[in-house]
């Protein structure tokens, strides 16, 4: 324990100065004596060897990482030359391999380029030949179509002429038939007029229906003739005025 110093400011002169001095000296004498440097080292050594097994284990665990690092460095240094040679050889092999691969790729690219150019030229030639053939085929097809169109036009005109001729012939025949029919109708009308003139009778003074019927149908058919004359002229009695024109049915 360090000796206690008194602050000058706290010091106050006292009449009992001698008593205070004596008391302070007694306190100083009661403190434990200070150890020397050699004594303190001996004391530490005694504490270290007090637990030897624990100390050995501590040292062992401390040495493990150090030894591992030393072994690792030794192995690395031992394998460094071989690895360096291998790396150099690998670099040389890789360089040669890359050079060969580059040359092969270049040759392959040139061959592919030549093949592509050749293929393009062949395709171009084939396309030109195809276009030429298509043009010739189109020309032939157009000529054929023109001929067919011309033939169709001629056939159409011929058919129209034929139909026109047939129509004209039909019209001519129809006109002839109409003329003939008109002639027959006129003849028939004339005959009917003549027949009508022959089948009429103008009632004269003193004539009766019976007398007229006897003259037209005879005495045997006079009775039925009277009824025919009455029906043909719409008469209801046998009395007919003089001058009446009667139809005499056949």
TrEMBL record:
Q: Where are the transmembrane segments?
A: 51-75
| Designated name of the protein | LysM peptidoglycan-binding domain-containing protein
The segment(s) forming the LysM domain are 199-248
Stretches of Basic and acidic residues bias are at: 86-162, 169-193
Where are the annotated segments for Disordered? Answer: 1-41, 86-207
Record organism: Listeria fleischmannii
Which InterPro entries is this protein grouped with? LysM, LysM_dom_sf
Q: Which keywords describe this protein according to UniProt? A: Membrane, Transmembrane, Transmembrane helix
């Amino acid at each position: 324990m360090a000796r206690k110093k008194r602050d000058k400011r706290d010091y106050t002169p006292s009449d009992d100065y001698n008593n205070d001095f004596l008391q302070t000296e007694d306190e100083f004498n009661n403190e434990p004596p200070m150890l020397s440097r050699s004594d303190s080292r001996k004391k530490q050594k005694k504490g270290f060897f007090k637990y030897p097994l624990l100390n050995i284990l501590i040292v062992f665990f401390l040495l493990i990482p150090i030894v591992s690092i030393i072994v690792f460095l030794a192995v690395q240094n031992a394998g460094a030359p071989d690895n360096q040679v291998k790396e150099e050889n690998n670099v040389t092999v890789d360089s040669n391999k890359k050079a060969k691969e580059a040359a092969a790729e270049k040759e392959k690219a040139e061959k592919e380029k030549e093949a592509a150019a050749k293929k393009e030229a062949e395709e171009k030639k084939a396309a030109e030949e195809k276009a030429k053939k298509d043009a010739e085929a189109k020309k032939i097809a157009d000529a054929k179509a023109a001929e067919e169109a011309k033939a169709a036009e001629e056939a159409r005109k011929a058919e129209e002429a034929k139909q026109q001729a047939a129509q004209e012939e039909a019209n001519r025949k129809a006109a002839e038939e109409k003329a003939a029919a008109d002639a027959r109708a006129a003849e028939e009308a004339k005959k009917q007029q003549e027949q009508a003139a022959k089948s009429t009778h103008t009632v004269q003074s003193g004539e009766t229906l019976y007398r007229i019927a006897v003259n037209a149908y005879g005495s045997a058919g006079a009775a039925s003739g009277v009824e025919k004359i009455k029906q043909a002229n719409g008469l209801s009695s046998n009395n007919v005025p003089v001058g009446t024109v009667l139809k005499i049915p056949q």
